[in-house]
Each structure stands twice: as C-alpha cells, then as structure tokens.
C-alpha cells in the first residue's frame, strides 16, 4: 500500500474507578490534576482539563518535540459525544435566569463545542489541523482512524488522537447506553519513521482503519467481510489475530447475535473481549490504551478494535 507506516509512540489516559451515587465511575480530580499543574488553565472546564492531562501523559512518553519553537504542523484529532455540552448549558442557564450581564465572560471560551480539542491544541502548541469527531461510541476510534489517515498519507508528519468524557447532569439525562458509565480520557501519539528518534518508544504499528455505514443491516457477515478484506489486503490470516476488542450501543439480543457470528466468521472463539464499562465517546481509545498499557499485544500478533452502533461500524487493526 502507498503511504507511510504509522506507529504509536505515546500512550496515556485516565479512567474512572470511584463509584458515584448512580454507581457510575468517576475520576477524582487529584488523579489527573498533577499532570497539568503549573499550566495556565484558569477558567478551563473539567472535560478540557481531563483531556489536556490525558494528552500530556501520552506526549510525555514519546520523543516528539512539541513546543512553540517547532515549525512542524502536527495534527490533533479529538473524539467525544458530549464534549463541552455541560459548560454550554451552565453558561446559558446563568444568562437565562439572571441576565446576560451576570455571566462570567472568562467562561465563554468553554461554550464553544470544540473547545476541549482546542484547549488541548493550545497546551501542546499544535499548529496543524484540529478536528473534533462526534460519532457516538465510535468517536475516539474514528478520531484515531482519521489521525492515522492524515499521518499515513503524509498530510501531517505526526498526530495526537483520542478523546474524553465526563459524567454530568445534562449528560445523564441524554445518554442511552445500557452499561454503567465511566469518565475517561485517553490519547495516543502517531508518528512515522521520519519523526521517530528512538525506536524503543514504539508501542505498536497501526495497520489500518476502515468504517462502513450499516443501517438496518448490522449483520456479523457484513462486518466480518470488512475485517477479512482488511486482513487480506495486508497478507494477514485469522491465525494472526490475538484478540478482538468490541464495543457497542446495540440492543443486547442483537449484540449477542453479532458477537456469535463474528466469533464464527473470524475463528476467534474465546478471543473476543467485550467492553464492560461504557466510556462513551472515549471508548475506542480507552480500549487501545488499555490493551497497550497492559502489554496485551504480543510481538507479531494483531489486535482488532471494533466499535459499532445501529448506523455504522469502525475498525482499527494494531500490530505489536
């Protein structure tokens, strides 16, 4: 295939472990605040602070030079379902209840829907393209995929990609997931051999990304066809698969049917791991970060990440 090989050289993130009154998992502020101490973040909302902390934890693990003296235009790709929605709601409610003159103008930047991505970009001194991807449970997986395509095609020399979600009153009223939810923020750094100074920083290679619209025909056969096509294009076989990581917003009965079909079609019995906690739009990148942090990807083997809802399906393949 044309294009550069893309490697993951930095991985970082935070996931909630403290149950709240609704038995959802929250991240305590003191879990991520030390990562961003000393930064000028006055007025920056919580989801942006978590996003910055996760991105910093990823970039600190690689040798990529990220400062304002660097003339390379790196990219940032951020996936989320809710993003800054709570900040928008709180700001507007003050205006509605007590008048426009009573709002705190320093909080206005957080009312821009893509403000978390922009805040990360500011802190990392990223001068290239900055995208916010909102595609349901696939949001962060699609953000990683879009970043991969940019780096692979050499549109940018390197990219930071991931996403974050926090649990808020507004989000709780809107969310339709069936598993208990968890706050999360995760990012990865993607580079080619042109920017990698130390090969020991390589955690995995991204072999490919693909997404399809499935509509009412969310059959395991069609999804398996997509995966098989990606494997064949890269001269890989079912035997190369170490594990498939699966995340879904489908009804449980549909999910069970799809999982069974995928296990049969891809010959991966006992090698499919289903997402247990709903990390919302951050689900895909958290699956990637967790698999790499726990060294679940063996040398020469591949891990496949599948996120799906009733509209589309996204797939990313990694190789150690």
Provide a concise account of the structure shown.
This protein has nine helices and twelve strands.
Plain-language structure description:
It contains nine helices and twelve strands. Helix 2 (46-59) runs parallel beside helix 4 and helix 7 (220-233) packs parallel to helix 8. The strands form two sheets. A ten-stranded mixed sheet has the order 5-4-6-7-1-8-12-11-9-10, sandwiched between helices. By secondary structure, it is an alpha/beta fold.
Write the layout of secondary structure elements.
Layout: E1 6-15, E2 18-19, E3 25-26, H1 29-32, H2 46-59, E4 75-79, H3 85-98, H4 115-124, E5 130-133, H5 139-152, E6 158-165, H6 169-174, E7 184-191, E8 204-213, H7 220-233, E9 241-248, H8 252-265, E10 272-274, H9 283-293, E11 302-308, E12 312-319
Parallel strand pairs: 4-5, 4-6, 9-10, 9-11
Antiparallel strand pairs: 1-7, 1-8, 2-3, 6-7, 8-12, 11-12
Helix pairs in contact: 2-4, 7-8
